[in-house]
Structures are given as C-alpha cells and as structure tokens.
C-alpha cells in the first residue's frame, strides 16, 4: 500500500523539486526497486548529501581554478615550443599549487566561523522579534486602557473651581472657565538674527504676536515650534496679579483638550513649588519622571493610577509634557539653591518638553544665574479697564445666578448689569480705587466688599481694603449668617496676627497641622484658655476662610494677608526695629510696605529707612510713601511732616542722577533717567514704559528730572527743551508725522538728512557743537539699540509705537507745564 504524504510533507516536497529530481535519477539505477514516493527522512538525508556535494565542488573549484588556468597556459606554451614563456609561467603554477593548499584550510575555517555567527544572528533576531512583539502588545494594551485620559481627569480636579488665592467667602464658587479673564503678557523676548534673545518693544508685530491685542500664553505656545525659546518661560509678577490662576487655567484647558488650533498637544503637570520644596531639596537627585509618577500622581488621587513602564519618561523625552512650576519666590531661602539646581537639571535633561515657572521679581533674582535655563522672561501686565469690566460682569453674573437656583433669567442679567455698572462707576470716579483694581486679587476683594456692603463707599487704599475684608470675614458675614464666632473680632485677629508674624520671621508660607496647633495654643491661652485650638482653626478655615488647608498643612489665603497681619502685629507690639533689621530680605518687603500703609503718619518710619542710605532702601522708602494716603487727617503738623519726608525721599531717589549730571557723565545720566522713570511707575529694569505709564507719570517726578537736566546742561538738554522744539516750534503732536519727525531728528542730532546717526557717533558731551535738545534720549535710544541688536535698519523704528510713546512723553511735559 502506498503511503500518502501529510500536507506538510507535500509542501516540503514541492519546495525541493531539484532534490526530488536527483533522487529519481539515482534511484533509477535499480530497476527492481518498487515505485513509491520518497519519505521525509530520505529527502532530508539526500538534502544533506546534495549540499555537501555542492559545497565540495565549489571549494574544489576555488582551490584549483588558478592551477587550471596556469597549467593550461604551460601546456600550450610547451606544445608550441615557446620555452621562454613556459619558463616564465612555471612560477605562477607553483603559486597556484600553494594557493590550493592554503584555501582548503582557509575556506574550511571560514565556513565554521560563519556557520556559528549565522546561528547567533538567528538567535538574536528571534529574541529581538519577541521583545518587539511584547512591547507592541504592551503599548496597545495601555493605549486601550486610556492612561493619558485618566491622568488628565485627575489633573483636572484641582483646577475646576475659581479658587484664586485670596478669594474669600464668595456666596457661591463659580467654575474657573466662567469668570477667568485672559491675562496679558508684556516685555516679551524673541530670537534675534544670531539666535540671541531680545525684548519685543511695544507695538512690534511678529506673526501672531500682536501686543496691541495683548500677548497671551497661547500665542507663545503656538509659536514654540518655530522658536524653541518659548518652550522654557518664566512669568514674573508681584503678589495678586494672577500667576497661580493663569497656570491653573492653562492646566484646565489642556485637561479639557480645548487648546487653540496650532497649540501643541501636551500633558500638563501643575506643581506648586512650596508644596514640594522640602521633598525636592531632600531628594534633589530624583528624576522628574520619577517625581511625577511617585509623588505628583499619588498626590492627585490616593487611589493612584496604574501606569505603563516609563510612562512619564517617554512623554518627557518626546516633548509631550508641559511642566508648570508655580511660585519659586515662595520657596524658603535655605532651599532655593537645591530647588533651582533641580529645576535646571530637569530642563537640561528634557529640553524638548515645555517648562513654565512663575515667581515674584524679587524672588527670581535669587534664582542662580547659572541655573537660568528659562530662555524667555515675561511680566504679567496689570488689568486694563476692559479686563476689569469683563471680570466684574462675569463675577456678578455667577453670583446672582447661583444665588437664585442657578437659572439664567433676564432679571438676573439686569441685576448683574446694574451692580457691575455701579462698581465700574466707582472705579472711574476714584483714581486710587482704580489703581487697586489693576491687581486681580484686589479686584476680587473689591467685588466681594461691593456685594456685601451694597451702597457703601469702597476703600481706596490697600491697607483699608485688608482691614475691611477682615471685618467682613471674621465678624459681619458670620453674624449675618447667624454663626456664633468663638472669639470676638479683635481677639481672633490678634491670634492670627501673632501667627502671621511668626511665619514671616521663619520665612514659611505654611505650617503642618500639628505645628500650627502647637504655635497658636499659647496665643489662644492668653485670650481664652477654655478654647481648644482645633476648634478655632476649624472655624477660621471653614467660616472666615482666612486660613486654607492644603493636604496636611495650613496657610493664609494669600501671602498678602500674611504680610498685612504681621505688619499689624508689629504695630500693636511696637516692634518696628524688626523691619529695619530685615529690610534686605525679599519676603519682608510686603510686611514693610503694609506696615507703612497702616501708620497714621509714616514720616518717622520712612525717615529711619532713608537713614540706612542705600539705593535699594531708598526705593523701598519710596514705595512705602506710595502706600500712604495722599491726604492725611487734617493735622497740619502731620501734613507738613509728610510733605517734608516726600521731598527727602525724592531728593534721595534722584541723588545718583544728579551726581552723573554734575560730573558731566551724560551717557550714564541718560540711562539712570530711564531707570528711575521705570521705578516711578512700578516696573523692573527689564520692562518698558508704555503709553499708560507716560499718561499717568507724576508731574512732580517729571519736573525734578527735567530741572536736573536743564540745570546741569546750562539749558541745553531736558524734556522741556525737546518739547519746545517739537511742539512749539515744529507744531508736532502725539500723532506721528514723518516730516516733522525727520526735521526734529535733524534738529536734536539724532538723525542726519533723515538717516539715523549710528551708536558710535552719538554725542554725550556738552560742547558748543552739540545740538540743543540732544539729551535725554534713552526713551527712544533704547528702541534703536534693540533694533541694532536684531541687525535691522533704524528705519523700522519709524513704524513702532515707541515713537508715539515718546511723543506722549513730550505731551505729558506740556501738561505738567515744563
């Protein structure tokens, strides 16, 4: 019976037709052998025999091919009796014999080596294929699990509600997206023609970055692919300008996947540095990916999140994460170096990912220069009137809607509109109140007071605003809600004041719960020893909302409250010397300013500051002076003292400028003029003056600056001199006129025949040939220096709003009667 081959045997036979044919011919020598299909074992044996025959034939051919060629030639020469050629060919034949002997061993060993290598390569290939298969299976499994979406859900939770720091006791807490007003960024950095970073002056248009419409964080992220510098940003602003709220808003938008078109898709990681400063300082070698997986995610959810291997690391290396680091200025001084080192290391390791850090300007100055890998530095701008109106409208609409069951009706809109209009009217009528409303935190408080004390006049000073908020939170609102407070207003505030002063002295924004209990226990015992500290803390946290619980720690609703209460305690206990001892430490600045603002007559305290006699303390004294009311109580003596100390402060502020001018150091005086103008409007040296700054520039300060220039130049230099030429003689206005501008530039020596005179030809000496009105010019000179850094011609400056700002300055000089 014939055996029927298995299907696999048929495939094997089909693929070996050559071997079957050879087998047939070899088997045909035996005619008596019965016909049958070859078995697999016989085919396998024959395969080995055939391969051995082929390999042997090839090896023999390689060995003896040269000999056949040379031997054939030798025989041919002999047959033709060409003995000389035969003799010459004989050595070649000998070499070929040697070659045959050599190649036999060589080829045999070569075959053994490559057979072994082939086996190893096949093993490695199979191992690699198995790993790839496992990795793909794992990736597909985690993609199906939706890990990224689950993470976004966790990160969304702490960013949903509009709980800005300092937002107190709102009747109803709106959602962040209901009331958030986009913040504008100023003094932007861009990349120059050599890859260096340069500031964008007001009015410069670069692609989608249009300062006239307001630069937002989304503009920067949208341009980050073309300009990698925008991937590493630091946002600077003073207290209450919405730094934290901005980061929470960005995080929330990303968790909702609602970022604008063109903005890169990223996973946001929001880290408040003061919450993690100790952990980072103690474990400064920990990698960011490990930190996210082992600390940040478990902090978002106690249940944790099941993650695929190297989840955070893979996202970071691919540039798919946005790391938001909030509040470097709130890191304790002893931990700032290790924290800054850690941040710098993470940016260096994950340069393709995105990093945005916030800080107050003074705090960022303590970020070591060698660690400043943030290649873009921006300032958050003050709220404009339109932003104020928008926020008030949204805020009131939420409050009135939620107070009436959450329904939106025409009557609710009418009530919200009327109350918004009333508050905006107060802002327009009272300049000091409008100044406070430039700060989002202050505007929150103003809106809260306006709704709570409907019909009453709002305070116009920061210290009065804090005082009224404390009155509202600790007494009036609980009484309206019929909540019995454990302590009367003055006693509760005294305990909080002592707590705040201790925290300022220790430079800590928060205390863990047990430390808080131990700290306030003796304070409470002095006012009411029957009161348990846990009950007091719970009521201040839940009813008054002046203390906020963060995990296992407590902190004041905003650092400004901590500063105000500490200042009030210093005033109560007459510890003014503390402020003079610590005036150089940044975290004392807020307390010093708010202390000056609480004094009925701050003149003696400001004089003590001035006596320290350093440029920094003079600036601090000037800022203290701005916290005081513009008119004191009707006490003639106090008013005279205030006027006297104001003149003293001003003289001290302009002492350096006067020294430069007196010594004919006009170039240095030019730059000092711009610096002190920035200081006057509350800006840092990296920032720019804008039209609003100029229009509100104090006339007294402008007169002092002009008087010094005119006096020490013998009437040749000064803003009043430039104003006379531009406005009185040439008929210039705030509007740009190219003909008048060119003529003015030629008159004062800034241009020649309409072309700008280069920096190397600038005149900073008082000569007979120096054009009248040539100085000061840094207001316009700074923009020309910036353009030179870009490698562009000065003609581009003609199209910039900086010229309009300069014309506004001359207009202000006319208004101030210079």
TrEMBL record:
<dbReference type="Pfam" id="PF05419">
    <property type="entry name" value="GUN4"/>
</dbReference>
<dbReference type="InterPro" id="IPR008629">
    <property type="entry name" value="GUN4-like"/>
</dbReference>
<dbReference type="InterPro" id="IPR007111">
    <property type="entry name" value="NACHT_NTPase"/>
</dbReference>
<feature type="domain" description="NACHT">
    <location>
        <begin position="240"/>
        <end position="395"/>
    </location>
</feature>
<dbReference type="Pfam" id="PF05729">
    <property type="entry name" value="NACHT"/>
</dbReference>
<dbReference type="InterPro" id="IPR037215">
    <property type="entry name" value="GUN4-like_sf"/>
</dbReference>
<dbReference type="InterPro" id="IPR027417">
    <property type="entry name" value="P-loop_NTPase"/>
</dbReference>
<dbReference type="GO" id="GO:0046906">
    <property type="term" value="F:tetrapyrrole binding"/>
</dbReference>
<feature type="domain" description="GUN4-like">
    <location>
        <begin position="650"/>
        <end position="788"/>
    </location>
</feature>
<protein>
    <submittedName>
        <fullName>GUN4 domain protein</fullName>
    </submittedName>
</protein>
